[in-house]
């Protein structure tokens, strides 16, 4: 070896560690998420009008189920009668759409419920409801967002109340349940949007850095709206709604309950002013800060401690005697259908005849003046 030459390095090159070997199998994670979703389904029966939804559809020959029906699906392949029976069942279980879905509800036209598991497909095809019994497409101009951890059952029930009252199709966003949602859900999720969003965002970012494949579980719908950032964001429902509002100019009305109202606030605050001026935002059970030029109508129950806590001092336009639930089968709940009707009627233009007004003022002054 020549003088001054560098000695060869025979030490082994350290291999890049394969961290995928340490990840939890996806097959073990999905049943855990389904179990948590089933818990949310039970909570929906308390906070949303699921009883009325089931009753309304049952009178139309449709059964709402929250359990998988493999036997029915198998028998449907055997004969036509079973296939027709299977077509009359709407599955709103956690297993049916664990990755999130957009439900388009029309309470007055069959098939009553249409589902989309892709935001882009919804923007292309789902901005109108297509009745199965004739008639042209009905444009979707309304979106609803429900509270913490709501499953497809609660989202459909809340959207049904709005659709039945306004006689228009309504799109309900069900964002999906990711592994990072377990932490804020276990804490209860009702600490205001800021704390809830922070807890979910931090846990999602930690999960994304340590297990990329697991971070994708439950985030399919959000990923079709904003791509890979859906696996790091703390509020997928806000991201989905923001993307829809940005691209669908026909959406005019937004209805949110509980944390759904806070998701609406987060989604509209960065929209252009010319877009927000055409929006009407109605909230139930949570008063958000009116940061945009949208038309706001916010309703709060006077015995709704949970909603008042989440409102952070914001004051509603209307106080009603009620608590946090919208289930019409329970006492002192928020009658969403009636409140929505009053809200729309209050927006009707008022025409005033100057002659009638002048005569009324003269008559009023004549009564007030002494003789």
Structural account:
This protein has helices spanning 26-47, 50-58, 70-76, 80-87, 119-125, 152-166, 182-186, 192-210, 212-215, 220-226, 236-247, 259-268, 273-276, 305-310, 336-345, 354-368, and strands at 63-65, 89-91, 101-105, 113-116, 128-129, 138-139, 142-145, 170-174, 253-257, 280-284, 295-301, 318-320. It is α/β, with parallel strands linked by helices. It has one domain (23-345). Helix 14 (305-310) links the parallel strand 11 (295-301) and strand 12 (318-320). The longest helix is centred in the N-terminal third of the chain and has 22 residues, at 26-47. It is globular. The chain starts with 25 loop residues before the first helix and ends with a helix.
Number of domains: 1
Overall average pLDDT: 75
Shape: globular
Number of strands: 12
**How many DSSP H or I helices?**
16
Structural class designation? alpha/beta
Cα-atom Rg, whole angstroms? Answer: 26 Å
Strand % is 5-15%
Distance between the termini: 128 Å
What is the helical fraction, as a range of percent? 40-55%
Strand order of the largest sheet: 4-3-8-7-9-10-11-12
Low-confidence stretches: 178-194
Order of helices and strands: HHEHHEEEHEEEHEHHHHHEHHEEHEHH
Q: How would you characterize the largest beta sheet?
A: 8 strands, mixed
């Amino acid at each position: 070896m020549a003088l001054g030459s560098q000695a060869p390095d025979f030490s082994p090159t350290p291999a890049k560690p394969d961290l995928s070997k340490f990840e939890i199998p996806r097959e073990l994670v999905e049943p855990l998420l389904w179990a948590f979703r089933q818990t949310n389904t039970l909570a929906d029966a308390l906070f949303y009008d699921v009883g009325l939804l089931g009753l309304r559809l049952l009178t139309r020959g449709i059964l709402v189920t929250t359990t998988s029906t493999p036997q029915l699906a198998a028998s449907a392949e055997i004969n036509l009668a079973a296939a027709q029976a299977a077509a009359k069942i709407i599955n709103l279980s956690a297993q049916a759409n664990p990755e999130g879905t957009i439900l388009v509800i029309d309470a007055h036209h069959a098939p009553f419920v249409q589902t989309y598991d892709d935001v882009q497909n919804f923007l292309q095809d789902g901005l109108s409801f297509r009745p199965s019994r004739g008639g042209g497409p009905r444009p979707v101009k309304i979106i609803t967002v429900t509270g913490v951890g709501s499953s497809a059952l609660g989202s459909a029930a809340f959207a049904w109340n709005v659709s039945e009252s306004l006689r228009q199709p309504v799109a309900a966003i069900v964002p999906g349940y990711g592994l990072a949602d377990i932490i804020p859900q276990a804490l209860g999720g009702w600490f205001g949007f800021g704390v809830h969003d922070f807890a979910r965002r931090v846990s999602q970012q930690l999960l994304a850095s340590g297990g990329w494949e697991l971070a994708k579980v439950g985030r399919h719908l959000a990923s079709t709206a904003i791509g890979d950032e859906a696996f790091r964001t703390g509020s997928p429902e806000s991201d989905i709604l923001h993307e829809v509002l940005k691209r669908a100019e026909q959406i005019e009305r937004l209805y949110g309950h509980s944390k759904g109202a806070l998701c609406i606030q987060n989604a509209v605050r960065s929209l252009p002013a010319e877009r927000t001026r055409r929006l009407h935002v109605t909230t139930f059970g949570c008063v958000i800060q009116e940061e945009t030029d949208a038309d706001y109508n916010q309703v709060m129950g006077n015995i709704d401690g949970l909603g008042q806590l989440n409102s952070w001092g914001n004051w509603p336009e209307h106080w009603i005697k009620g608590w946090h639930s919208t289930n019409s089968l329970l006492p002192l709940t928020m009658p969403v259908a009636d409140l929505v009707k009053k809200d729309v009627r209050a927006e009707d233009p008022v025409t005033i005849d100057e002659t009638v007004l002048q005569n009324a003022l003269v008559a009023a002054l004549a009564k007030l003046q002494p003789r």
